[in-house]
C-alpha cells in the first residue's frame, strides 16, 4: 500500500524535474549566434529593398493624402477592432516625410550591417510596424514575416553577436592593441585570437522563438489548406498556372503531366503539415529545411512572391548549424597561408589588425618579421625582401609578394572579398601594384621595433593553442 502512494509521487517528482531540465536546456542553453547574425543581415537587406520600393512614391504609401488616408485608416482599424494600433508615420507631417524616410534608411542600413545592433534592432522593429499600420492596403505575408523576425532580434538583442560590424570593430580594437603591445612571434596564431563566436543564451532564445514560430506558421497553413477540396484533389498547383496576372514565368506546359502537378500539390501540403514534427530530428532537419526552401522557390516562380519567399528562406536559417554556415565562407579545414609583415611599420600593423579581425576562421597566419627569423617560415625568404613588401606563403610552395599577397589574403578574409574578386582583373592588378609600390616606398619604420628580438614574445592572453602541426622547413630549390 505504501508503494502505491510513494511510487506515483516519486514518478511525478522525477517527471517535473526532467521537464524543468528540458525546458532550461531548450531555451537557455548557449547557442552559436552565427545563424542569428545571418538572419539579421538577410532581414536588413530585405527591409532596405522594401523601403527602396516605398521611396518610389512615398506620399502615396505613407502620406496624408495617399492610398490610405486617415479616414480609410480609421475604417480598417475599426474593421479589425484594433484600438491600440499605432504608427509613427501618422504623426509625421507631409513636409517631413522625406527626411523621416532618409532617417529610416540610415537606421535600416545600420541594422543590416550590424552597427549598434541592439538599438538599431529596436528602431528597425518600430519602423516595420509603423509602416505596416500606416499602409494596411499593401500589407501581406512578407510584412508579417519580417516584423516577426525583427521583433525577436530586438527582444533578445543577439543580432550583433556574429556577422556584424559590432563584432568586427571589437576584434579590430583588440588586435590593434595587441599588435601595439607585443611582437607576435608565433606564426601559427593570429593576433586577433580565436574568432569563433562565443555561444550565448540570448542567441539560443532568439533561434528557439523563430523556430517555434515557423512551426506554427507551417502547421496552421497546412491545416488551413485541408478546408479546400482543391488540395484534397491535388489540383492546387495546377490552378496557379492559369493565373497569368501573378505568374512571372509561363508554366502552362506542365499541364501535360497532371500526375506531376498532383505530386507537387500533395507534397507541399504534407510538407507544411509535417514540418512542425519532422524538422526537429537532426537527421531529418537538412532534408526538411531544404525541401521547404525549394517550396518557397516554387512559390516565387509560380506566384511572383519573391520578397515573401526570400523572407521565409532567411527565417529557416534558424535551423542551420553555425559551424556549417561558417564553413560555406571558409571551407572545411583549408590550408592556411602565412603572411610575413613588417612589425616595425605602423601602417603594416594597422593593415594586419584589419585582416586578422575580419578572419574569424583564422585561415591566415600572421608572422612579424621583427620577432622571428623569416627563414623558418620558408627558406626562400630573406629579411630584406620581406621589409620591402609583404609576402604570403602558400598554399603549396607558392610565394606572393606585394599587391599579389594582398589579393591572396583578401580571398581568405570574408570582409575583404571584394578586393580578392577585382584584384586579379586586368588593369586593376597593374594599378594595384603601382599604388602598393608608392605606399610601400614612403612608409616609415619605428627604430625601437626594427631590430629582431631572439627572445620569445609573451604569449597572447586568451588565445588557445591551435591543433595544427608545425610545417617543416622546405628545402631550397
TrEMBL record:
Keywords: Membrane, Transmembrane, Transmembrane helix
Keyword Nuclease appears in the UniProt entry: no
Name of the featured protein: HTTM-like domain-containing protein
Coarse class of the protein's main subcellular location: membrane
TM ranges: 38-62, 96-116, 137-155, 257-280, 287-306
InterPro entries membership: DCC1-like (IPR007263), HTTM-like (IPR011020), HTTM_dom (IPR053934), Sporulation_signal_mat (IPR052964)
Compositional bias ranges of the Basic and acidic residues kind: 443-457, 467-477
Any GO CC annotation of this UniProt entry: endomembrane system
Region (Disordered) location: 439-477
Topology versus the membrane: Multi-pass membrane protein
Compartmental location: Endomembrane system
Residues annotated as domain HTTM-like: 28-324
Upper lineage: Bacteria, Pseudomonadati, Planctomycetota, Planctomycetia, Isosphaerales
Keyword Ribosomal protein: no
A GO term, aspect molecular function: protein-disulfide reductase activity
Amino acid at each position: 500500500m505504501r508503494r502505491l502512494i510513494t511510487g506515483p509521487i516519486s514518478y511525478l517528482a522525477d517527471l517535473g524535474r526532467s521537464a524543468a531540465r528540458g525546458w532550461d536546456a531548450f531555451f537557455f542553453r548557449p547557442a552559436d549566434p552565427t545563424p542569428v547574425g545571418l538572419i539579421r543581415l538577410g532581414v536588413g537587406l530585405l527591409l532596405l529593398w522594401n523601403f527602396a520600393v516605398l521611396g518610389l512614391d512615398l506620399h502615396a504609401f505613407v502620406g496624408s493624402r495617399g492610398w490610405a488616408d486617415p479616414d480609410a485608416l480609421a475604417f480598417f482599424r475599426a474593421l479589425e477592432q484594433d484600438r491600440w494600433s499605432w504608427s509613427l508615420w501618422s504623426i509625421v507631417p507631409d513636409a517631413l516625410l522625406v527626411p523621416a524616410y532618409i532617417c529610416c534608411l540610415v537606421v535600416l542600413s545600420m541594422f543590416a550591417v550590424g552597427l549598434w545592433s541592439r538599438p538599431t534592432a529596436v528602431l528597425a522593429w518600430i519602423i516595420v510596424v509603423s509602416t505596416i499600420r500606416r499602409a494596411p492596403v499593401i500589407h501581406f505575408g512578407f510584412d508579417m514575416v519580417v516584423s516577426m523576425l525583427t521583433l525577436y532580434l530586438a527582444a533578445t538583442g543577439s543580432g550583433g553577436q556574429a556577422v556584424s560590424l559590432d563584432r568586427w570593430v571589437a576584434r579590430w580594437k583588440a588586435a590593434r592593441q595587441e599588435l601595439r603591445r607585443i611582437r607576435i612571434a608565433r606564426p601559427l596564431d593570429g593576433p586577433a585570437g580565436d574568432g569563433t563566436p562565443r555561444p550565448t543564451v540570448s542567441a539560443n532564445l532568439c533561434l528557439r522563438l523563430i523556430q517555434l514560430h515557423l512551426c506554427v506558421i507551417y502547421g496552421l497553413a497546412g491545416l488551413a489548406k485541408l478546408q479546400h477540396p482543391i488540395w484534397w484533389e491535388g489540383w492546387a498547383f495546377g490552378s496557379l498556372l492559369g493565373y497569368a496576372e501573378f505568374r512571372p514565368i509561363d508554366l502552362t506546359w506542365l499541364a501535360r503531366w497532371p500526375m506531376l502537378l498532383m505530386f507537387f500539390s500533395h507534397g507541399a501540403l504534407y510538407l507544411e503539415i509535417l514540418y512542425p514534427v519532422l524538422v526537429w530530428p537532426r537527421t531529418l532537419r537538412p532534408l526538411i529545411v531544404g525541401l521547404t526552401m525549394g517550396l518557397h522557390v516554387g512559390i516565387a516562380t509560380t506566384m511572383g512572391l519573391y520578397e515573401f519567399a526570400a523572407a521565409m528562406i532567411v527565417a529557416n536559417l534558424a535551423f542551420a548549424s553555425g559551424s556549417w554556415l561558417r564553413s560555406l565562407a571558409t571551407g572545411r579545414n583549408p590550408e592556411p597561408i602565412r603572411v610575413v609583415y613588417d612589425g616595425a611599420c605602423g601602417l603594416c600593423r594597422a593593415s594586419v589588425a584589419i585582416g586578422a579581425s575580419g578572419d574569424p576562421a583564422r585561415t591566415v597566419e600572421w608572422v612579424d618579421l621583427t620577432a622571428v627569423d623569416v627563414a623558418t617560415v620558408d627558406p626562400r625568404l630573406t629579411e630584406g625582401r620581406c621589409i620591402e613588401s609583404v609576402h604570403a606563403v602558400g598554399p603549396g610552395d607558392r610565394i606572393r609578394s606585394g599587391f599579389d599577397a594582398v589579393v591572396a589574403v583578401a580571398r581568405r578574409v570574408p570582409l575583404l572579398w571584394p578586393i580578392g574578386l577585382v584584384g586579379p582583373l586586368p588593369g586593376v592588378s597593374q594599378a594595384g601594384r603601382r599604388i602598393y609600390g608608392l605606399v610601400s616606398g614612403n612608409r616609415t619604420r619605428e627604430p625601437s621595433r626594427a631590430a629582431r628580438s631572439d627572445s620569445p614574445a609573451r604569449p597572447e592572453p586568451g588565445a588557445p593553442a591551435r591543433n595544427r602541426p608545425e610545417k617543416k622547413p622546405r628545402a631550397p630549390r
